[in-house]
Design a protein that fits this description.
- Keywords: Cytoplasm, DNA-binding, Phosphoprotein, Transcription, Transcription regulation, Two-component regulatory system.
- One of its GO terms (cellular component) is protein-DNA complex.
- One of its GO terms (molecular function) is phosphorelay response regulator activity.
- This is Two-component system, OmpR family, KDP operon response regulator KdpE.
- By secondary structure, this protein is α/β, with parallel strands linked by helices.
- The protein folds into two domains: about 5-125, 3-Layer(aba) Sandwich (Rossmann fold); about 130-230, Winged helix-like DNA-binding domain superfamily/Winged helix DNA-binding domain (Arc Repressor Mutant, subunit A).
- The chain is built from eight helices and twelve strands.
- The chain has helices at about 15-25, 40-45, 65-70, 90-95, 110-130, 160-170, 180-185, 195-210, and strands at about 5-10, 30-35, 50-55, 80-85, 100-105, 135, 140-145, 150, 155, 175-180, 220, 225-230.
- A five-stranded parallel beta sheet has the order 2-1-3-4-5, with helices on both faces. Strands 6-7-8-9 form a four-stranded antiparallel beta sheet, covered by helices on one side.
- Helix 6 (about 160-170) crosses helix 8 (about 195-210).
- It starts with 6 loop residues before the first strand and ends in an 8-residue tail after the last strand.
Length: about 240
């Protein structure tokens, strides 16, 4: 029997979908709470120790995008958006606002459960990262304390900007980072949204860490949105 301490908050105004999610989480022995409005969601986040939020965008009292923005003013709780909005522009806007992942309706429960497990696994890793200076994804390893990177146990040389970009991905393993978010973190808020410099930097980094840069194994492109450091096997410290 699974012994999970994490609490999942389901924020969904469609009773049929909400009940379906609740039933599926119950079968998997997850601990959860469910609400149908943004107001109730905010009350639960304040009153309870919530570890993951499953958030619909089309809420009756406040758009889910605003809920994300409000929560991100004071909390880093992982947020997995579940929405019928499937335009790339809308996904980018949600991710830029601070959501950690996005699942489009209709969805399979198998995929939702997989993404929940990934989100909770990342949460545990983040909680442990404060005591770790070395993190590994597959055969790629970064030493934050010494600013060193290893591939297949061999040290590889990165420029300061390449290291900064790779470190950003290692701090967000498995999470989609939008191009706007990456540019802001790497070059600063006043740089603008010129993606050419990012594409050139990404190309240079991939040539050093990927066996075949044209078919990357580590940093994959989320078309129209951004990039993701693909979770592979292990974390070391």
């Amino acid at each position: 029997m699974r012994k999970l301490k994490e609490t999942i908050l389901i924020v969904e105004d469609d009773a049929q979908i909400r009940n379906f999610i609740c039933y599926s989480l119950k079968l998997e022995e997850f601990h959860y709470l469910s609400v149908s409005t943004a107001k109730s969601a905010m009350e639960q986040v304040v009153a309870e120790k919530i570890d993951l939020i499953l958030l619909d965008l089309g809420l009756p009292d406040l758009d889910g995008l605003e809920v994300i923005r409000k929560i991100r003013e004071w909390s880093d709780i992982p947020i997995l958006v579940i929405s019928a909005r499937d335009q790339e522009k809308e996904k980018v806007e949600v991710l830029d606002a601070g959501a950690d992942d996005y699942l489009t309706k209709p969805f399979s429960m198998v995929e939702l459960l997989a993404r929940i497990r990934v989100a909770l696994r990342h949460l545990k890793k983040q909680n442990n990262t404060t005591t770790k200076s070395i993190v590994a994804v597959g055969n790629l390893r970064i030493d934050f304390e010494k600013h060193l990177v290893f591939l297949n146990n061999s040290s590889i040389h990165l420029t300061p900007m390449e290291y900064k970009l790779l470190a950003l991905f290692f701090q967000n393993i498995g999470k989609v980072l939008t191009t706007k978010m990456i540019i802001k973190e790497i070059w600063g808020i006043g740089y603008g949204e010129d993606t050419q410099a990012l594409r050139a930097l990404m190309s240079a980094l991939r040539r050093k860490i990927e066996t075949n840069p044209a078919q990357p194994e580590y940093i994959i492109t989320e078309i129209g949105i951004g990039y993701r450091l693909k979770e592979k096997r292990r974390s070391a410290g």
